[in-house]
């Protein structure tokens, strides 16, 4: 009998359907793997299951859930916890300054009556520390952890923190289902092995586990069955023993892609690279780059792909010097200064940030000034000298902006409209116009189609291809959408755990991409 | 630990320069500690709940003064009057604390500057009430409190009927030291110690460390923060009443103004920071800050031939120590963000 049944779950975020009639069944005590790319709908499904407020503040969802034989409709995480569902989040939910005991017992502390608590209420009950310690110890023992429960969490190895999170969940006496969201992403290999052992033990204790990860070999190793999601739809639910890793990768990535291979240029890798990254480290929170080596040829479009959090976004940000960076960047054989955005602009490298509203645009300035300001600052374009004074030439800016609006088809009420009031696609075009005004040799583009509707997406991508063809501009495009990288890039580098996993041609097989994103080379799996 | 040591050295140096007799110093310190400890204590809980240094205790001080103004108006003196003032000020302080808490919940991450500006803003309303409305719309039965025009409270109100009534309660026959005040202060410090070991205290510590994790664990973050500010404001109201009964006069429009600044400086000199404070820091800091207060004018006089120098020096210290503490805090936060080595 199923412990959890989710039937025909659909969810729409402001007109955008992210889950289409997904069904998920989990049996009591089994380990169930949930697979999918970024944006496949895994997180949304988990948010629904765990009753996260974001679901209900955006209009709820459609479909039925049954848990443990009863209809189940959680409004808050507390409802989910009461039913016996626990979740270990991707980022740690541990308070660094608290001891292990305090963290395991957070908001579920054992307490004793006091004189005041009888008058004022249970909030003034005294903490029963010995009892708390004893029970924490018990939970840790179940995980074969021998760590002193009175140590503060800060300073412990990350592997331990993961176990403490799980200890907190199994300390909840009624735990029936434990959701683990990318639990092994932060663990070393030996820690991960120990971790998988623990999961098996828990499953033997009768606790069902829903295991979300992109490490396919782990899925293969521990799960009893898997469910694969792609683009918000259910691809397949299958028992693990009937499927191999290559097949999993294909299910995860596979889709019909219509791209014209005739567009692609042959890249001569023997030529001297135009831009070269040697051992690049970037400390961008959540997207750390840990030693990337890449050679980019003049006139190519290089795609940077990979799953979120693996570091692909950090590369362009690091090249521009927006986050602390180490390593060597050579352009045309010349070493570039690091951590200096201005020098990079001076060296004819322009950047379209993934943070369009934060970094890309001055939201409370009109379109024409947004297009011109970097050029004014860096190249002293649009400036006339009157004696010792430098005056911005408004007329010239306006006529230039109008030309750009026409060329790029920016839909607006005029060049004096504030960029805040433009749609996402048109805002992106303003960013492109600004980069074009600089007339750069290298254009770094980060997530150019995020939050943009399909029609505008095509326009933005076409514009990039056109620039590449007509001006022979070298473009490095970072995107979470593999399909769009395959559509326009000449080569695609997949970034995993802060490093280049492999460089693939856009017409490589789905399996190859899927495995690369999971941190594997196709050759080693097939052997 | 550096800050208190530096100030201890300063105090020792100042002590020798000033040439003040130990006897005199001891007496002064006893009274100053009894006057100020509760006000400094009131800052600890907001620090633990992660709301920084609550400059909003100015509103608590106002609540305390409102309590005193009411009993002065009805001429209820003695220890009974004083307890009545404490009682009356409490609901007012709870109300003020609730409002401050509500506002600070809207300004998460900017609690300190917000609470400071709230103090200035509240001062404006306080003046409106007691300069313009008092006597005109708010009736006062005690004409001695009003200015000669019949509107507005006098600048100074003599608190003779409650003067030292709290300090001397029970023990006045035995000694002139404020024994009762010390007993109450110690009880409050002990109470704080136990409070932090309760469920609510644990929740405040959790909220102070991470609002996000606390809320995911089911703790009502906003409510916890409001309770924290209410406790702080009520303690400040009581602290201000106890301060004023010792002084014996109420400077209607000035007494509350510097309360936040001096209490914050005291706590910081004791070695506390924006996110860490305990009773030890409150006690050590209050002691050092006021010791410096007593000796610095005389030390300035003896060193430079000008008492004003010492006076400047202590004002400089009060503001300087707050500025340095805030800077250090910002630096540490920045350091945590931009280190490349921890990849």
From TrEMBL, chain A:
InterPro entries: AAA+_ATPase, ABC_carbohydrate_import_ATPase, ABC_transporter-like_ATP-bd, ABC_transporter-like_CS, P-loop_NTPase. It comes from the Bacteria. One of its GO terms (molecular function) is ATP binding. Residues 4-522 form the ABC transporter domain. PANTHER family: CARBOHYDRATE TRANSPORT ATP-BINDING PROTEIN MG119-RELATED, GUANOSINE IMPORT ATP-BINDING PROTEIN NUPO. This is Sugar ABC transporter ATP-binding protein. Keywords: ATP-binding, Nucleotide-binding. The keyword Cell cycle does not apply. SMART domains: AAA.
Automatic annotation (TrEMBL), chain B:
One of its GO terms (molecular function) is transmembrane transporter activity. Its main location: membrane. It holds the Pfam family BPD_transp_2. It is found in: Cell membrane. It is a multi-pass membrane protein. The chain crosses the membrane at residues 6-26, 38-71, 77-100, 112-138, 169-196, 226-246, 282-300, 312-331. Keywords: Cell membrane, Membrane, Transmembrane, Transmembrane helix. GO terms for cellular component: plasma membrane. InterPro entries: ABC_transp_permease (IPR001851). This is ABC transporter permease. It comes from Tissierella pigra. The lineage of its organism: Bacteria, Bacillati, Bacillota, Tissierellia, Tissierellales.
